[in-house]
From TrEMBL:
<dbReference type="GO" id="GO:0016192">
    <property type="term" value="P:vesicle-mediated transport"/>
</dbReference>
<keyword id="KW-0472">Membrane</keyword>
<comment type="subunit">
    <text>Interacts with SNARE complex members GOSR2, SEC22B and STX5. Interacts with LMAN1/ERGIC53. Interacts with STX17.</text>
</comment>
<dbReference type="InterPro" id="IPR039899">
    <property type="entry name" value="BET1_SNARE"/>
</dbReference>
<dbReference type="GO" id="GO:0005794">
    <property type="term" value="C:Golgi apparatus"/>
</dbReference>
<keyword id="KW-1133">Transmembrane helix</keyword>
<keyword id="KW-0653">Protein transport</keyword>
<dbReference type="GO" id="GO:0005789">
    <property type="term" value="C:endoplasmic reticulum membrane"/>
</dbReference>
<comment type="similarity">
    <text>Belongs to the BET1 family.</text>
</comment>
<feature type="domain" description="T-SNARE coiled-coil homology">
    <location>
        <begin position="26"/>
        <end position="83"/>
    </location>
</feature>
<keyword id="KW-0333">Golgi apparatus</keyword>
<keyword id="KW-0813">Transport</keyword>
<keyword id="KW-0812">Transmembrane</keyword>
<keyword id="KW-0931">ER-Golgi transport</keyword>
<keyword id="KW-0597">Phosphoprotein</keyword>
<comment type="function">
    <text>Required for vesicular transport from the ER to the Golgi complex. Functions as a SNARE involved in the docking process of ER-derived vesicles with the cis-Golgi membrane.</text>
</comment>
<dbReference type="InterPro" id="IPR000727">
    <property type="entry name" value="T_SNARE_dom"/>
</dbReference>
C-alpha cells in the first residue's frame, strides 16, 4: 500500500517541511560557529594569561634565589663579626 503525498513534488533535502528543517539546521550551525569563536577567544586569553603568569613566576623565583644568596652571605658575614 502506498501513501499519497509523501515526498512527492518536494525538492530533495526539504523532506516536505518547506525549508523549515534546513533553516533550523542553519540556525544551529550559526549558533555553534558563534559559540565556537567565543570559546576560541576565551581559550586564547587564558593561554596568554597563563604564559604571563609563568614568566612572572620565573622572575619571582629568580629574585627569591638572589635574596636567599644575599641573606646567606650576610649571615656568614655577621657570624664572623661576632667572633
Amino acid at each position: 500500500m502506498r501513501r499519497a503525498g509523501l515526498g512527492e513534488g518536494v525538492p530533495p533535502g526539504n523532506y516536505g517541511n518547506y525549508g523549515y528543517a534546513n533553516s533550523g539546521y542553519n540556525a544551529c550551525e550559526e549558533e555553534n560557529e558563534r559559540l565556537t569563536e567565543s570559546l576560541r577567544s576565551k581559550v586564547t586569553a587564558i593561554k596568554s594569561l597563563s604564559i604571563e603568569i609563568g614568566h612572572e613566576v620565573k622572575n619571582q623565583n629568580k629574585l627569591l634565589a638572589e635574596m636567599d644568596s644575599q641573606f646567606d652571605s650576610t649571615t656568614g658575614f655577621l657570624g664572623l663579626c661576632s667572633m
